[in-house]
Amino acid sequence: MTAPRKILFISADQWRAECLSALGHPTVKTPHIDALAADSVLFKRHFTVTAPCGPARTSLNTGMYLMNHRSGRNGTPLDARHTNVALEARKIGLDPTLLGYTDTSADPRGRHPNDPALKTYEGPLPGYKPTMIFQEYMAQWMSDLRAKGYQFEGRHDVYQPKPGFKVPDGRGHRFIPTFFKAEDSDTNFMANRIIDWLGDRTQDEWFLHCVFLRPHPPVITPEPYNALYAPEDVPFPKRKATPEEEGAQHPHLKTMIGKLSKPSSYDEHNPNNLVTMSDLELRQMRACYYGMINEVDDAVGRIIAHLKKTGEYDHTLIIFTCDHGEMGGDHYTWGKETYFDQSFAIPLIIRDPRHLADGTRGKIVDALTESVDVMPTILEWLGAEIPAQVDGRSLSGFITGAAPAKWREEAHMEIDFRSGPYGGIDAERAFGIETHDCQMAILRGKKWKYIHFAALPPVLFDLENDPDEMNDLSKDPAYAGIMLEMAQKMLSWRLRHQEHVLTDLHNGPNGVEDWGKKKRA
Fold first, then answer.
1. Which of 126, 135, 192, 514 is packed most tightly, with the most Cβ within 10 A?
2. Is the pTM of this model over 0.85?
3. 322 membership: H or E segment, kind and range
4. Would you say the C-alpha torsion 288, 289, 294, 295 has a positive or negative sign?
């Protein structure tokens, strides 16, 4: 009898790729995810193709670059004509379930203006059964807290620092824990719901996409996670001597630094200026961020332990990744909307339970991979057809030991930084440019990294000699040839990947024929 198909698709939020002890991080310890990686394939140079959350999760689930799906900001509607991994899985009899969020903004066409789906950017991606989406699980979690005796007003103060907590010497503000206990946290609450959902389905086939909010800000964590890492053990951010010197690199960077100097622009309930705060406070924020990562690591460990206990582990495709990265104070910035690697580099671990993947367990892949590769990987594992819209490529060859002979030499990233109601900067006013000019595209190889702005100066880094991206070479005449080469590569990439859903189809005497399939056969 064939084992039922099972897919556990785990996503965290805002997790720096380097923050895995399996990759040798000098401070962070992630024992449970390390154990999963040792039985899986870990993709070391994995990048989301866009940020922030909504656009990143759209690319992750549709397999499409931003330039094709065009849902570029949180709140930008996703065109309903695009398919996604959940809709495709439904075609072969699976019922994909969502616990968490995809931050999908519904296509308003065909909907009445009063439709509640148009009043939020935190909707579920079509195709997923939204068993407990963000607003619901936050409401249920807060109700659970109140039932346990916690007192607070609502979402705006549920992550408040523990009242009356005295910060010891050598620690900063972000050492103060949450007012709720670790067993009552949102991360633990989500893990409980996931295990509850799995509990009644041990003999069933299922596809579960579960999303943890952490380590997304606010940067605060319950005891004992707040004390796991000492500030003096935390690596100091990569940055220049002053914010002014850093901001001189590019107008976009200068504007981002200026925004982050304003209170609560990134981290609520934090009294510090994130740009000018002391070294101790800066290291403490990083230490707290690492503690938030350990919360999720422990939760993932509980879920994996459940699958092993029920015997489902050996029949489940397990994917661990996230939406985008986190600057963490590097270049005086926090969040994920700058052009530096820390905004885009994210973890990806895939465990294929089949015996044909036994030879690659514990392997670390050095090839450049992208978030758009996850969707076709899942579909190929299921034996489903990969839609023509997909820009990514299946990673199954790396997982089964038959790595593709020809693979991409650069990773590709984009950000739409036009102004909007959900974060970002007032770009049009700040730079004196048109809304549709608020675009950047990035071509990132192992040596050269080229950033092209539609209406602002370009940037060029030599990553071999300048891995921290401190020195822009774009204005140096000695690099004019490299600039031309990278710009041509970017143009070729965009030509090659511009929307192609119908381009291989031809109408003729035999009806509609797919000549792309014929050429690939």
1. 126
2. yes
3. strand 316-322
4. positive
